[in-house]
Design goal:
9 helices; Pantoate--beta-alanine Ligase, Chain: A,domain 2; 2 domains; 9 strands; about 40% helix; six-stranded parallel β-sheet; about 280 residues; alpha/beta; three-stranded antiparallel β-sheet; Rossmann fold
Length: about 280
């Protein structure tokens, strides 16, 4: 595995891989890798001969009161994990390489970034879409792999790929969970034993709703209430939202179907967690 910290160096290495006839797979991350990230590498390896992973904690997607400075980082550990899983090119740009001057252009979307995560984190998705567009232009991958846990993010990036005509195949891989059901996240490291137990409220609420759907409940408002009632049994969990939405516009549904998505975000102490499940899919 080669570690590269400049755009020019990465482009040269990718050009060499393309000259060998290899497809390019891309896994963008903010580092502090866990098994969920590494499963994305597995997906990329199935689709491409050369796998590029980026490790970049993007400052433009963090709000003024969010955790950019304390976001967990472990570059040497990440490099070992990436190499062990088969990453070919590891891109570790400093902020000055990605943003040599303060950005004056941003990728914006219409209404979806103002709902759910966007309402709680104003400006977040503009930062995400902008850095992903930059990375797509740098890497020019044939296939890019994202995780389903950040469902709204994946939905927006898929829309950007379609509407801006990026010639990229997008793969959205299933959420990876701990044995107790907690969705893997770099922020899980912030949770002590008590907070972790409370963090299971998210997956319990989702499982309760998918079970109700499996038993025949189709009313979107009722399914949402079932999820919120489950969360209310955890008094130390502060809920930002729970909803059952359609998978494209992510608007609340009147009548749920198999592709409807239950989404949840909540705070356990100072740590904010998100999760989701597609109603008609087994975990």
């Amino acid at each position: 595995m080669r570690q590269i910290d400049t755009i020019a160096g990465l482009r040269a290495a990718i050009a060499t891989a393309r000259a060998r006839g290899e497809r390019i797979g891309f896994v963008p991350t903010m580092g502090f890798l866990h098994e969920g990230h590494l499963r994305l590498v597995d997906e990329a390896k199935r689709a491409a001969g050369c796998v590029v992973m980026s490790l970049f904690v993007n400052p433009t997607q963090f709000g003024p009161n969010e955790d950019f400075s304390r976001y967990p980082r472990d570059v040497s550990g990440d490099a070992a994990k990436a190499e062990g899983r088969g990453v070919d090119l590891l891109f570790l740009p400093p902020v000055s390489e990605m943003y040599p001057t303060p950005p004056s252009l941003h990728v914006m979307a219409d209404d979806l970034p103002t709902r759910w995560e966007g309402e709680v984190r104003p400006g977040h998705f503009s930062g995400v879409l902008t850095v992903v567009a930059k990375l797509f232009n740098i890497v020019a991958p044939d296939v890019a792999v994202f995780g389903r846990k950040d469902f709204q993010q994946a939905t927006l990036i898929r829309r950007m790929v379609r509407e801006l005509n990026f010639p990229i195949e997008m793969v959205v891989a299933p959420t990876v969970r701990e044995n107790d059901g907690l969705a893997l996240s770099s922020r899980n490291t912030y949770l002590d034993a008590g907070a972790r137990a409370n963090g299971l409220a998210l997956v319990k609420s989702l499982r309760t709703v998918t079970a109700a759907f499996a038993k025949g409940e189709r009313l979107g408002s009722r399914l949402g209430n079932i999820g919120r009632e489950t969360l209310a049994t955890y008094p130390d969990v502060r809920v930002d939202y729970f909803a059952v939405v359609d998978p494209t516009a992510m608007k609340p549904v009147d009548t749920a179907s198999a592709d409807s998505v239950a989404i949840v975000a909540a705070r356990v102490g100072p740590t904010r967690l998100i999760d989701n499940m597609i109603l008609g899919e087994a975990e």
